[in-house]
């Protein structure tokens, strides 16, 4: 059904927890009441977030709808986990520059710069293919983003030469891989069947390939994947410490900072929504807090004295 491997693993995990929670009874012998009890226990006893409870619900609905073919009736007795209204952590432009400068690996520094310069999510950046970087049009096509949607974002002019050099590295590496009898890459959905030659084409290679080969967890094929996201996460955390940034910083903070700074530059909320790939503008609206600089734009009386 073209679900990502992570989604598959998460769903299987939640289904196991659901079964174990009810004494290892078979799901066919359970139904609406047991599902409501399990979801409520997550919120009340385990104090999970609303997103986590929602993922558990999606997994169980998938089990009954797609596997057992016994759709559940409306669940109206579930105690919902509270969704806290938290503002995202955002860095100033100066902090972003300090962070990027503190990344000690050139490749990871390019990735971090690209995440901030485009607003891409971490995995969107790492899964970037050579064919989706359009130097002529100055844009990047983000394929299969959240919600399995494609979108277009800008290609920062200041990164063009570094990205060209990186593509040249990929071209040379790919040529060596082909010479060694390898060079194929994982393709999404049914493309591998429909276009078998695409797996070994330069255009489908990752812009940021991993240093070594790895085993595909589904097929068992030995291929070169993209850079591990944990490397980027560790690099960002270490760079933030070196740069003396005390606020919480992760690769996703770069996306928050991108959105905030684009709004500060005067671009409209709909443009930012499209660049970020948000389905609803209400999701993007959280970044407008920066336009009301502390205290909704009201100056402190301490600053009005004297």
Automatic annotation (TrEMBL):
PROSITE patterns: CB (PS51900), TYR_RECOMBINASE (PS51898). Pfam families: Phage_int_SAM_4, Phage_integrase. It comes from the Bacteria. SUPFAM superfamilies: DNA breaking-rejoining enzymes (SSF56349). One of its GO terms (molecular function) is DNA binding. Residues 1-68 form the Core-binding (CB) domain. InterPro entries: CB, DNA_brk_join_enz, Integrase-like_cat_sf, Integrase_catalytic, Integrase_integron-type, Integrase_recombinase_N, Integrase_SAM-like_N, Tyrosine_recombinase_XerCD. Keywords: DNA integration, DNA recombination, DNA-binding. Residues 86-300 form the Tyr recombinase domain. GO terms for biological process: DNA integration; DNA recombination. NCBIfam families: integrase_gron. PANTHER family: PHAGE INTEGRASE-RELATED, PROPHAGE INTEGRASE INTD-RELATED. Belongs to the 'phage' integrase family. This is Integron integrase. It comes from Aromatoleum tolulyticum.
């Amino acid at each position: 059904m073209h679900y990502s491997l992570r989604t598959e693993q998460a769903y299987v995990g939640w289904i196991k927890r659901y079964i174990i929670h009810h004494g290892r009874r078979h799901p066919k012998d359970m139904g609406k009441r047991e599902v409501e009890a399990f979801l409520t226990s997550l919120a009340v006893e385990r104090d999970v977030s609303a997103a986590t409870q929602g993922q558990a619900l999606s997994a169980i609905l998938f089990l009954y709808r797609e596997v057992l073919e016994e759709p559940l009736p409306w669940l109206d007795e579930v105690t919902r986990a509270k969704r806290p209204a938290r503002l995202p952590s955002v860095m100033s432009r100066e902090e972003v520059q300090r962070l990027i400068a503190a990344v000690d690996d050139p490749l990871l520094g390019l990735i971090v710069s690209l995440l901030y310069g485009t607003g891409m999510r971490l995995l969107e950046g790492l899964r970037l293919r050579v064919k989706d970087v359009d130097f002529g049009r100055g844009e990047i096509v983000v394929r299969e983003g959240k919600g399995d949607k494609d979108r277009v974002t800008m290609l920062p002019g200041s990164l063009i030469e570094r990205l060209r050099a990186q593509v040249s590295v990929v071209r040379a590496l790919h040529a060596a891989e082909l010479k060694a009898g390898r060079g194929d890459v994982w393709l999404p959905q049914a493309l591998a069947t429909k276009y078998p030659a695409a797996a070994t084409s330069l255009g489908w290679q990752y812009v940021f390939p991993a240093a070594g080969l790895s085993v595909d967890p589904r097929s068992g094929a030995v291929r070169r994947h993209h850079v591990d996201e944990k490397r980027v996460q560790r690099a960002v955390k270490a760079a933030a410490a070196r740069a003396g940034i005390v606020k919480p910083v992760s690769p996703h903070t770069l996306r928050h900072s991108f959105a905030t700074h684009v709004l500060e530059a005067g671009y409209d909320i709909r443009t930012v929504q499209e660049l970020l790939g948000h389905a609803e503008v209400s999701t993007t609206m959280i970044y407008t807090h920066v336009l009301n600089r502390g205290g909704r734009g009201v100056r402190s009386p301490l600053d009005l004295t004297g």
